[in-house]
Amino acid sequence: MRIAIVGGGVGGLVLALSLLDAGLADVHVFEASRRSAQVGVGINILPHAIRELTELGLLDELDRCAVRTGAVAYHNRFGQQIWCEPRGVSAGYHWPQLSIHRGELFGVLARAVDDRLGADRVHLATTIDDPTALAATFDVVVGCDGVHSAVRSWMYPDEGGPLWNGVTMWRGITTMQPFFDGRTMALAGVVDHRIVVYPIADLPDGRQLVNWVAEVRTDDARPMPRQDWDRRADVAEPLRHFDSFRFAWLDVPTMIAAASNVFIYPMVDRDALPSWCRENVVLLGDAAHPMYPIGSNGASQAIIDARILARELAVSPTIDEALSSYETLRSPATAAVVAANRHAGPEQCMEIVAERAPNGFTSLDDVITVRELEAIAARYRSVAGFDPAVLNERASWSVAAP
Ligand SMILES: Cc1cc2nc3c(=O)[nH]c(=O)nc-3n(C[C@H](O)[C@H](O)[C@H](O)COP(=O)(O)OP(=O)(O)OC[C@H]3O[C@@H](n4cnc5c(N)ncnc54)[C@H](O)[C@@H]3O)c2cc1C
User: Fold this and answer.
1) Of all atoms in ligand 1, which is nearest to the CA of residue 7?
2) Ligand 1 first shell, C-beta below 6 A
3) pLDDT for 224
């Protein structure tokens, strides 16, 4: 079976590795950029996706350049803690949650693809504007070409661009002393005005690379910022919104001011599609289901898509059945995550507390119960597919697994 992958991002590279793992070796990757151009900010990969990367033999290498996230802590805009839950192995998962520099993640994936598939199968600086010619020469074409997918526009020419919710995100990395235990992802504020911060690498001198995303609703008649992963912004832009974010555990303005580079991106997603397939062409990852970066799920869901699609192509009697079964398994599941993220996902606790106690609280118990907090967290884990009991118990998706 000849398979063409359009786009060599997280989804495309993990798909290439998964196809090989499933015994499908006639694979070509077409990637628009040169690899060195990968954007230099952080990303969080959740345990359900790390399980898949572990089964592909990548955990040791990832572990060498990532931070194992031990907890996620949610705060109000005064830095008061609302909820803190263990993550990764601390939460009983058999696999860690990793926070990592995007460049490092791409490096690990790209090296594995070059070693296992062969660098000659990865066609860099090759943009596919229309998959028709590939569809005629390959048995399957998979559009892994991200939020601006040309393959998706070819399938749905009238759809238009991604949908902006009015929130602008500035992202950066700051070299600094660890906050909390040096293993915690922290959020403070509400989706309209909030900071997300997590360490992505330990440095030899005890400091860390800390990734941050500063989010503000800025839709007061401003046009949507251009959607380029590597569009730079002046540090003064996010800084002016976060002057009051000075907490005992983190001085946000100092952290933002010390960032090496600042990137700007709008918070966008798209509505669910009626179908991900047209003939032998199919969508995967952000091309199929871009979602707000809430709950750290976009790349993790792309990784799961890749594993399921590879398995279905390897075990199904026909390609049509494989594509249809992949879509049945993944389309409703990812549509549910897109919808949950539109309602703040696991970060709903921050919205509720801000509504009930806009000026902060003396006792959190007067504002929200532990039961409510647990229910929000459990609901999202279940929707996004990373409930620890379910994940630990379910059979492997590797074709070769017993
Ligand atoms: C601020 C922010 C923070 C995020 N944080 C997280 C997080 O912590 N955890 C998480 O899981 N997700 C996160 N995400 C989402 C995550 O980045 C995406 O979901 C993920 O990158 C999707 O992977 P993909 O392979 O589908 O697409 P992409 O990573 O976008 O890759 C698409 C690839 O296709 C290539 N390409 C594009 N067009 C063409 C073409 N016509 N021909 C050939 N190649 C093409 C591109 O160059 C690119 O390499 C975040 C997103 C944002 C905006």
Assistant:
1) 34
2) 6-12, 30-33, 43-45, 127-129, 144-146, 150, 169, 171, 213, 265, 285-287, 293, 296-300, 302
3) 78
